[in-house]
# Entry
Amino acid sequence: MSEHHTILGGKVHVYRRPNSSSWQCASYLAGKNRRTTTKEDSLSKAKEVAEDWYLQLRGKLRDGELKNGKLFREAGKLYLREFDIITQGERSPTYARGQHARTDGHLIPFFGNMVLPEITSGKVNEYRIRRLEESKAQRGKPLAHNTMHQEIVTLRQIFKTALRHGWIDHLPDLSEPYRSSPKISHRAWFSPEEYKQLYEATRRRALDPKQPRFRWEAEQLHDYVLFATNTGLRPDEAMRLQFRDVMVVEDEGSGQTILEIEVRGKRGVGYCKSTAGAVHPFERLKARTRPDGGPGRSGSRTASIANGEWHEPGPIDLLFPKWPRDLFNAILEEEKLRTDRDGRPRTAYSLRHTYICLRLLEGADIYQIAKNCRTSVEMIEKYYAAHLKTRLDASAINIMKPRPKKKTVSRKGPGRVEALRLAEEA
# Structure
């Protein structure tokens, strides 16, 4: 049992735990239990220290220096609980796991024992500095800007949760100091010459694969490159696409045979009209038999190919059941197309960027491109149209307004400029 005493009419408790020589003191003030050690072995001296400590707390409370309220730890736990219940089935499991990892792994260990009102922009900046220093000490390089941005977004969501419940009356300033706005750079894409080089390389690989058992993947990759660059689908949209979602139609406006696609992706259900160049790849995909197996070792596609287990694709089959990333990257490396001129790596997304850029180069309406790609005009102007020189109209830029002739009025006669003009006319 611990020894226990009270002073100041029971407002302060002085106690000593078993196996400890120092006395502790505690008090309930401003809605919170507060405790500290007196660092004294003598009870009489410990009571004096406890009395001084309590009076200092009362002074801080009177001057507004003593913060009270909910702890950040409570707000973080409440946010995670609300997030899991409200967004159930609407946010991806990966994103949900990331929110838990950022909150429990980084934010609560740093801010957890702080009262919400005392977390200022300075404290948030201290958190940034600590994370950057830890990353540099552990990995030898600073934390990625996007990683820090995601943690600050999670921190903002926790503060918004506290604001909704009335635990704070305003959000702290979470903007990053000393940093200018990041430079807007264009997305990695393939120029017309590079795109031709790419699809010719994938065609050669489809006709003559390095190993016969990879012929089907090579043929699928070649058709994917052509299909994606002529539809502008996002990679996840293309991987969800089933044969029943695509129709070959005659377009009344252009008189061409194109594809009408019902797209399911990050923006829900949308629609897309392809160029004529997507029709032949789709017809090849529809006519190509495919191995029965799926991902995994048991009954895999590789085993089905070896055993000759093939079937004709049906309406609910995926156009692209597998994304041959390694083969795609290998071809890019062989053709020296792995990165663009600014060093940005090219991925499957680069085919979508290529579609948008090629349409802009051909003078297509930017609003129609945005609708067909299920994005906004602002995004296209920000990341795509900004670097295309064909979007600049030299005749509109270099227009010159004729200069009016200056007239000088003088009561004493023509001025110097006017006299020179009269002499030239004479």
Summary: The radius of gyration is 35 Å. DSSP finds 16 helices and nine strands in the chain. The first helix runs from residue 43 to 63. The beta strands are 3-7, 12-16, 24-29, 32-37, 246-250, 257-265, 268-273, 290-291, 310-311.
